Amino acid sequence: MQSGSLRLDNDGPYTARVATITDTTVHLGMNNLTPSEKAVCGFCGAVALQTTFAQCGGLCMQCFMKRNHGYRPSELASLRARELESYFDRWQRFQNKRVPSSWFHAPDPKVTHYVPLIQAAISGYLRFGEGSFDAGANMRFLDELKATRGAKLKAYVLELEAFVQELMILTKG
């Protein structure tokens, strides 16, 4: 295979990024950047732009997002600006608890349909913050879920309902 260079031009800050193709391996580098424009990730050792490290607290973007539930610095700044940072932290802990195992042993179609919809509505609003949070639809979904069986699942649904109600209050403004 022939060796050569391929410039990856775009409108963003990575217009100086060059990919060198050697045999079957593609090497991405920052060959056109000066040493003062480069920085090394404090966790994985990757090299990236100084501006990225400034935004990410000394980490590359990939390490930053791994440590912040896939959120970029701008998305976390948006949460702070909308005063939703503590809600976000509690939401992340709640999501990490997962749905009770009784959901998987005898799945209720309401649970398998409504729980992901509610989770996506909350996570989507937190991540993008555009538009309005449709609390009414989510409350109707929760009313359907309250009829499910199982004490652990009911406790989960009640906790989920508390998150929906709190976000409804926070977004009214």
Salient structural properties:
single chain; 173 residues; three-stranded antiparallel beta sheet; 8 helices; disordered N terminus
Q: Low-confidence runs (pLDDT<50, min 5 residues)?
A: 1-28
The amount of beta strand, in percent, is 5-15%
| Overall spatial form | elongated
- How would you state the average pLDDT, rounded? 75
How would you spell out the order of helices and strands? EEEEEHHHHHHHH
User: Rg to the nearest angstrom?
Assistant: 22 Å
Termini separation comes to 60 Å
Oligomer category: single chain
Largest sheet: 3 strands, antiparallel
Number-wise, the strands total: 5
Query: Could you give the order of strands across the largest sheet?
Result: 1-2-3
**What percentage of residues falls in helices of 4 or more residues?**
40-55%
Structural class by sheet pairing and helices: mainly alpha
Task: Please work out how many helical segments DSSP would assign.
Answer: 8
Description of the structure:
The strands form two sheets. The chain has a three-stranded antiparallel β-sheet with strand order 1-2-3, with no helix packed on it. A two-stranded antiparallel sheet has the order 4-5. It is mainly alpha-helical and 173 residues long. Mean pLDDT is 75; it is low at 1-28. The termini are far apart. The chain contains eight helices and five strands, in the order βββββαααααααα. The protein has helices at 50-55, 61-67, 73-81, 85-97, 102-105, 109-128, 135-145, 151-172; strands at residues 4-7, 18-22, 25-29, 38-40, 47-49. A hairpin with a 2-residue loop joins β2 and β3. α6 (109-128) runs antiparallel to α7 and α7 packs antiparallel against α8 (151-172).
